[in-house]
Automatic annotation (TrEMBL):
Residues 73-338 form the Fe/B12 periplasmic-binding domain. It comes from Calidifontibacter indicus. This is Iron complex transport system substrate-binding protein. Belongs to the bacterial solute-binding protein 8 family. The lineage of its organism: Bacteria, Bacillati, Actinomycetota, Actinomycetes, Micrococcales. One of its GO terms (biological process) is iron coordination entity transport. InterPro entries: ABC_transptr_periplasmic_BD, Bact_iron-sidero_bind. Residues 28-53 have a biased composition (Low complexity).
Length: 338
């Protein structure tokens, strides 16, 4: 019996969620992550949101950087930030080379100049652009890259979302998004987009609570399978979306998960399984994730019997996790197994 996929009729289309983002209005809680000030916090200051003057950004490396309002030539070295700025309608002058396909909402970025990779930026090419603002974050958000970028321009900010408390991570994402929006005077749009994100999450959380059962999240990389639990890089499944985890001794931190075998699935017998195909996400040639999981033991689980095993959008879950559209895509993925 082959691994059974979730039924597509249960999928909440991401395009519909994007449309919702243009109609809703709202805000989100604050946190201790990146914040903005122009006399006060960007999340509370109307003056900062208008971007009529310089905006002081406290970035993820603890620096306070005064950023001129509405910078024109922007280099972005983080996919979460790139997706956020694209949603806000902010032009991007240069990006890292994509390792896989970009989602439809970022299709226009395919023609944008590339300047190295997330791990190895092309500093010479960036310098030649004479950017007004350089934004690093995530995989490029480290002291080494920051040091090199400040040799090119003093206008560099690290917009990584770093929050050790999993219950506060979503709030930190919201604050980072508001910070970015305030630089270009787009706080109103940000509130609308965040309201759409929160609604999508809330809708799935309600259904997940009522559905019961347990949920497992696994990442397949080549032939290796790793399982993740609450507190891990994919902890949003349980913390924000309200699913119940399997009763397994999984790591509560770290980015690599626990390597598991096929017996693990049968032992903990999840009601549903979400699968991230890492190889496909980063453009590697490998056996498809569902084929790797297609075994007699996995197929004996409740998840397989009830067609509740489904792949997720790798770009949103692995490359650009900290932005509203990726949370909406995550909600779409999770709805498929409810």
């Amino acid at each position: 019996m082959p691994v059974a996929l979730a039924r597509p009729t249960r999928t909440v289309a991401l395009t519909a969620a994007l449309a919702l983002g243009l109609a809703a209005c709202g805000s989100s809680d604050s946190s201790n992550s990146s914040s903005t000030s122009n006399g006060s916090s960007a999340s509370t200051s109307g003056a900062a949101a208008q971007a009529t003057g310089p905006v002081t950004v406290k970035d993820a490396q603890g620096r306070s950087v005064k950023v001129a309002a509405n910078p024109g030539k922007v280099v972005v070295l983080d996919w979460s930030v790139a997706r956020s700025l694209t949603q806000l309608g902010v032009p991007i002058a240069a990006l890292p080379k994509a390792s896989g396909e970009l989602p439809a909402d970022m299709a226009a970025l395919k023609s944008v100049k590339t300047v190295g990779t997330l791990f190895e930026p092309d500093y010479e090419a960036i310098a030649e652009l004479e950017p007004d603002l350089i934004i690093i974050g995530g995989r490029s958000g480290n002291a080494k890259v920051l040091k090199e970028m400040t040799k090119i321009s003093p206008n560099v900010i690290d917009m990584s979302v770093r929050e050790d408390d999993a219950t506060k991570h979503l709030s930190a994402v919201s604050d980072q998004y508001k910070t970015l929006a305030s630089i270009w005077g787009k706080s109103s749009q940000a509130d609308t987009h965040l309201a759409s994100m929160n609604k999508a999450i809330g809708d799935v959380r309600t259904k997940a609570t009522n559905a019961g059962g347990t949920t497992m999240f696994v990442q397949v990389s080549g032939s290796k399978v790793g399982a993740y639990g609450p507190g891990s890089r994919f902890g949003t499944v349980w913390t924000d979306f309200g699913f119940k985890p399997v009763n397994a001794p999984l790591k509560s931190d770290g980015g690599h998960g626990d390597e598991i075998n096929q017996e693990f699935f049968l032992k903990y017998n999840p009601s549903r399984v979400l699968v991230l195909d890492r190889s496909r996400t980063i453009g590697e040639s490998a056996k498809p994730a569902l084929d790797v999981l297609n075994s007699g033991l996995v197929n004996k689980t409740d998840a397989a019997k009830n067609k509740k095993i489904s792949t997720v959008d790798g770009f949103s879950w692995y490359l650009a996790t900290d932005t509203p559209l990726s949370y909406i895509a995550a909600a779409n993925d999770l709805a498929k197994v409810l």
